[in-house]
Amino acid sequence: MRLASTAAELPERPREGTRAVVMTMGALHEGHLALVRRANEIAEQVIVTIFVNPLQFNDPSDLERYPRTLEADCALLEAEGVDAVFAPSVEEMYPGGDPVVTVSAGRIGDVFEGARRPGHFDGVLTVVLKLLHLTAPDVALFGAKDAQQVIAVRAMVRDLAVPVRIEAVPTIRDADGLALSSRNVHLSSQDREAALALSRALAAAEAAARNGDPAPDVVRTGMDVLTDATRASAGVAVDYFAALDPRTAHEVPADHRGEAVVAVAATVGGTRLIDNKTVLIDLEGRP
After folding, report:
1. Is 135 in contact with 126 (CB distance < 8 Å)?
2. Can you list the domains of the chain with their CATH numbers?
3. Phi, psi torsion values for 53, nearest 5 degrees
4. Contact yes or no for 113/120 (Cβ under 8 A)
5. Residue 255 binned pLDDT confidence (cut-offs 50, 70, 90)
6. What is the pTM of this model?
7. How would you write the chain as a 3-class SS string?
8. Rounded CA gap, 172 and 181, in Å?
9. What is the side-by-side order of every strand in the sheet holding 271-281?
10. Are strands 45-50 and 139-143 parallel, antiparallel or unpaired?
């Protein structure tokens, strides 16, 4: 496996077959490795990027605290058969300081996660676009757990005619249903039990959608589960629970038909968690 700090050090593209890229900020866990394994299934050459992007952090202290575990990450990736790790420095990515020209997430960056973290998705899209140019993949893989990020990246690729296919890999969950996240290590055993309300709420919403319920009822069904959880545990504070349009990340109308991303964000014991499920709202299918 090659470790590259500049694009010039990356391996040449394969003469035949495809190149896939998985973009990370390091501190890898099984969720990241699931992306890598899927990339190995569909591509002859796999590149993983590790770059802690300062443009997407609102709080400088969060950027400073973010774990840097390059050596351990590389060991995991080599065991997975990755061809190259691209780990550029901040100076390599942004020579001369913050870039003058950046990418705007537009309306996608104004709602839900974007509203809670102003400028976050602009920073994400700026680094994603630059890494796409530097690594030149045929396909880029992202985790479906970060639903709004996937929506934003797909919109950028579509609207700016970037020649790459975006694939969202399903969320990896622990046996109890909790979505894998690097933030889970901050949960106490009591917090973790309370956090299971998120996946239970999504499952309830999914069941309501299968029953043919309209979007407001799908959301209400899931929210009822979360309301019960907040009554049972003062450590659960719900930020939002909503059905989003998979192209715009805005809330779907009451008469929406088709796919919707039911997304949830909540703070549990001081740790902010997100999760989601894609459901099909088919009003004609109601018994």
Report:
1. no
2. 2-169 (3.40.50.620), 182-281 (3.30.1300.10)
3. -85, 110
4. yes
5. very high
6. 0.93
7. CEEECCHHHCCCCCCCCCEEEEEECCCCCHHHHHHHHHHHHHCCEEEEEECCCHHHCCCHHHHHHCCCCHHHHHHHHHHCCCCEEECCCHHHHCCCCCCCCCCCCHHHHHCCHHHHCCCHHHHHHHHHHHHHHHHCCCEEEEECCCHHHHHHHHHHHHHCCCCCEEEEECCCECCCCCECCHHHHHCCHHHHHHHHHHHHHHHHHHHHHHCCCCHHHHHHHHHHHHHHHHHHCCCEEEEEEEEECCCCCCECCCCCCEEEEEEEEEEECCEEEEEEEEEEECHHHCC
8. 9
9. 236-244, 258-268, 271-281
10. unpaired
Convert the pLDDT of each residue in 141-156 to its tens digit.
999 999 999 999 999 9
Q: Are strands 19-24 and 139-143 parallel, antiparallel or unpaired?
A: parallel
**Which residue(s) pair with 275 in the sheet?**
264
Q: Which residues are catalytically annotated?
A: 32
Span 122-135, pLDDT tens digits: 999 999 999 999 99
Contacts 24+ apart (CB under 8 A), 94-99: 94/54, 94/55, 98/54, 98/55, 99/55, 99/126
